[in-house]
Specification:
The protein is mainly alpha-helical and 138 residues long. 60% of the residues lie in helices and 10% in strands. The chain has two domains: 23-46 and 109-132; 51-108, no CATH class. The longest helix has 21 residues, at 113-133.
Length: 138
């Protein structure tokens, strides 16, 4: 193990087990990462996301919101260095993204209190272990 640490340590002398530039903490970091991923996955599988109609004054507005994006793409294919094309693409992505997010309906599936608490403890506990692993050991 010492040979592996010597090979993996750089010129700064830090070892592979030194997470975040501090001494030790790799075990806490890995356990926290596993807990965080498991809790987030379990929580997110309990959610259904649907979308409604995107309307503007009673009319379907999704198509019209694509116009700045498409014009920006056209201008970028004509001149890839043009600022106007990049600005229109960026504005189009913001408009389309905001419209999609504004019309999402998010539903949490019915689940037991025990399952909900386990999901949240895994998620928050994992974040706590990751944060603790970055503190210096004494």
């Amino acid at each position: 193990m010492e040979e592996l640490d010597r090979r993996l340590s750089g010129s700064s002398g830090r070892r592979l087990r030194d997470v975040g530039g501090t001494q030790g903490g790799l075990g806490s970091f890995l356990l926290g990462a596993v807990m965080l991923v498991a809790g987030a996955y379990w929580l997110l599988t309990q959610v259904t996301v649907t979308s409604g109609f995107w309307t503007f004054y009673g009319y379907n507005a999704f198509g019209i919101s694509l116009v700045p994006l498409l014009i920006g793409v056209l201008l970028l294919f004509y001149n890839g260095k043009g600022i106007l094309g990049w600005l229109l693409v960026l504005a189009g992505l913001v408009i389309v993204g905001a419209g999609i997010l504004a019309n999402l309906n998010i539903y949490f599936h019915p689940t037991s209190l025990f399952n909900t608490l386990i999901m949240l403890v895994l998620l928050v506990g994992g974040l706590g272990l990751i944060a603790r692993s970055l503190l210096p050991r004494g």
